[in-house]
Amino acid sequence: MLKKIASIRGGLTFLLILAIIYAIYGIYYKIEYWGFSFSPKQNTNLWSIEAHISFTPTNTPIKINLTTPRSNDAFKILEENIIAPDYKIKRNKTKSLLTLTAPAKNPEDKQNLYYKIMLFDNIDTRGKIKAPQPQAPQQPIFDNQKLAAAKQILDLAEKMDGDSVSQIILLLNQEPLAPAVQSYLPVKNTQQQTVEIISDLLALKQIPSRPARGFKLEESKKSLSPDLMLEAYIDGVWKLYDIRTGKKGLPDNFILFQRGGKSLIDVIGGEDSVIKFSVLKSVKSTMSLAGQRAKLMDSQGWFNYSIYNLPLSQQNTLKWLSIFPLGILLIVLMRNVVGIQTMGTFTPMLLSMALVKTGFWAGMGCFSIMILLGLIIRSLMNRFNLLLVPRISAVVIFVILIMQELTVLGYSLDLHIAQSAVFFPIIITAWIIERASITWEEEGPLNAGKEIFNSLLVAIIVYFVISSEYIRHIMFAFNELNIIILFIVMLLGTYTGYRLLELKRFSPIVKR
Amino acid sequence: MLKWLSKFCSPQQLYDAGVLGMNARNFHIISKHNQRRLYPLVDDKVQTKTLANNIGISTPKLIGKIEHQYEVKNILDIINQYTEFVIKPAQGSGGKGVLVISDYHDGIFTTASGRKISYAEVYQHISNILSGLYSLGGKYDTAIIEELVHFSDVFKEYSYQGVPDVRLIIYKGYPIMAMTRLPTKASGGRANLHQGAVGVGLNIQTGKALHGVLRNQPVTIQPDTGADLMQIQVPYWQEHLLIGALAYDMTGLGYLGADIVLDANKGPMMLELNARPGLAIQIANGFGLKTKIKEVDKYYPENLTANERVKFVLNYRHAK
Ligand SMILES: Nc1ncnc2c1ncn2[C@@H]1O[C@H](COP(=O)(O)OP(=O)(O)O)[C@@H](O)[C@H]1O
Ligand SMILES: [Mg+2]
């Protein structure tokens, strides 16, 4: 016999371990590839950026080159949209260049084209992405005089703060400028030129660099022009620098749109071209973006068969369901390990679920009122000597009436307590009343009270676990935990040790 | 808080005392020794009675039974010549739904506790039984009407109204533990411990009192009558044990409880059998069932007749 139990236990333990390993892998996978997290409130910023290109066609063929961002580890593209009716759309191999060609017959009136992209950024991976070593930077073509000046500037830069890139940027932005720098810089320089100058200087130091464009996000501003920044390849990573302050890293509220390349948009065959950008920020819960992430991570097959791919309303139902196993585990623990006897095995579970919907105090108050009224009515009904089925049915109807009255009362008095009545399972409530009243008759009010108290106690314990938004989120997001619970429950089925309350119950045997 | 905690003992202490816990009872004992298909034999008191009478165990005589609602009105015909009887559910448990009528005259029923009730109430009670109010899971039940047991005077001073009974635990056909359950005022004259009856553990070889327990606490006197519980000596002890041993032969249940009442005129009678007897008997005896079960597994012979098993128990000396 003992051997048999040992083998059952061994088998179940083995399965439990398998379940744990599976769950750990599943959790890792979901966090890594689907972006799930343990916190229910994790949100991801979602940006929609719109480029509005307008120009008046000339008589030459129209061609528009648009550099577009591609998904990478720093941000993912959710949606991409081109509104350019009648234009032919072509992409290059890496898809980073979009070419729009006008139809054979050139349009005459002003053209309005739109390019829309929606992307979310992966804050976690910012600045941590290892990039392959780019080619050695192309050396600038300088005459001897310019080279000497450049070398002098590099020497001067050594005295500034920060790393070699910051040093150069700081030097070039110094107020007032050092004389050597002043003579080196052109009289009026654009951002574009500044970047080029810095890049050339860095190339002399064999540091690869490239321009980067992005947007400083300010909600109030609707039209923006892209800001230029500089990326330098240092220690195997592309690092971003502000070309005015030399500050390293991505500034807050800044979204990178494009890296490298000359300019964002070229319009050939048009005049008066205006490019306006607008940026909109929205917040979405990380969970709802999981599908997109999965798609980008090539793990979509699995995702399509997961519950997270269902319509939201069904997900909510399942979310509700996936907390059950934990509640059941608690009830098994309460009954078989602690030794509390409740009315019906899962009555506390149903009660606690009602409490979640009503809120704790409102629910408790309402439940007490219903049970109390129910018991009074039930004891009055005793005199009618009704048969069981009609009697319990009558109690059910009474419970419904009480619920209705409480709800109406709650509404007119604006009492939240009374309005929560509708959430209590009618049949369960009726049975609790019926059982309690029988126990009352047969074993006295004390025992009846004790039965209700025990059931309520377990319900409250279960309530506090399942009402936690964290736990609910975790049990839903990482539903493989339910398999662990399954095997724990089964293992508890082989628990033959004493129940906690038996230590009190049987203590007279050893304490005599 | 500390005081409350001090009411607990350690699992090791219980283990050393050989106490059988609920989980171990269900897992090791009941599921191993009691086949599920045998349960109806003991869960249905009508079947139990028939089987018992066939094998020679005496039980309170069945006056009649009511199976359907339309038969309820026949109750007066059934009890026609009786002035005292008991109505109870065939599949009840824990004393639920047992109506003891100690006097019936001119349409007035008097219960054991002296309450007078009308025909309508009796009718209602039977209806309740039929609709399954008192049976497990609420399934339809049969009401049985049987003769009232006139309990022997030996117990008179130990119990307040009601019928005291003797509960035997029978393992593999050997009675291994015994206790008598004495109704109190608090238990409403019923012999169920959780309703407040006093339990007194009995020496299995002699039928003499060992310890008393009331609501899980040790007692030495009957709370209502003040009688010294330690003076209890159940008469016809060997006959009690024989009923227990025969109950095993008749049901095939390796672990069962037998409730036996002592009728003043007819001697020990079996009231009911139980395939999942409670564990409170250990408290009344002051030692654990596991000790006894191990002893039986190790030293008690198999394949003895009921009589031989009773003799074996009576003459058994602890193996040292
Ligand atoms: N025939 C009877 N005569 C007197 N009392 C009875 C009789 N039958 C039952 N009782 C009383 O009712 C109690 C419970 O009856 P029992 O047959 O053991 O049903 P249950 O299965 O509900 O325990 C008994 O302990 C006894 O006190
Ligand atoms: Mg009984």
Task: Describe the protein's architecture and organization.
The complex is a heterodimer of chains A (512) and B (320). With 512 residues, chain A is α+β, with helices and mostly antiparallel strands. Among the domains of chain A are: 144-267, no CATH class; 312-479, no CATH class. Chain A has helices at 2-33, 144-157, 164-172, 179-184, 191-204, 290-296, 300-304, 312-321, 324-338, 347-358, 360-381, 388-413, 416-419, 426-466, 469-477, 481-492, 502-505, 507-510; strands at residues 43-57, 63-67, 75-83, 88-91, 97-101, 111-121, 209-216, 227-234, 237-241, 254-259, 265-268, 270-285. In chain A, the strands form three sheets. In chain A, strands 3-6-1-12 form a four-stranded antiparallel beta sheet. A four-stranded antiparallel beta sheet of chain A has the order 4-5-2-11, with no helix packed on it. A four-stranded antiparallel beta sheet of chain A has the order 9-8-7-10. In chain A, helix 12 crosses helix 14 (426-466). The longest helix of chain A has 41 residues, at 426-466. Mean pLDDT of chain A is 80; it is low at 124-128. By secondary structure, chain B is of the alpha+beta class. Chain B folds into two domains: 6-56 and 151-315, ATP-grasp fold, B domain (D-amino Acid Aminotransferase, Chain A, domain 1); 62-146, Dna Ligase, domain 1, CATH 3.30.1490. Chain B has helices at 2-5, 11-16, 22-33, 39-43, 45-55, 75-78, 119-130, 237-251, 281-285, 289-299, 306-315; strands spanning 62-66, 85-89, 99-105, 108-111, 116-117, 143-147, 165-171, 174-182, 198-202, 209-214, 217-219, 255-263, 267-274. Chain B has a seven-stranded antiparallel beta sheet, sandwiched between helices. Chain B has a six-stranded antiparallel beta sheet with strand order 1-6-2-3-4-5, with helices on both faces. In chain B, helix 8 crosses helix 11 (306-315). The longest helix of chain B has 15 residues, at 237-251. The termini of chain B are far apart. The chains are: A alpha+beta (512), B alpha+beta (320). Chain A binds chain B through residues 1, 5, 336, 339, 385, 387-389, 438, 442-443, 494-499, 502-512, and chain B through 7-11, 13-17, 19, 21-24, 27-28, 32, 69, 96, 120-121, 123-124, 127-128, 131-133, 138, 194-195, 211, 213, 216-218, 279, 282-283, 286-288. The structure holds adenosine-5'-diphosphate and magnesium ion (MG). Adenosine-5'-diphosphate binds at residues 60, 86, 88, 92-96, 98, 100, 146, 148-149, 162-163, 165, 190-191, 259, 271-272 of chain B.
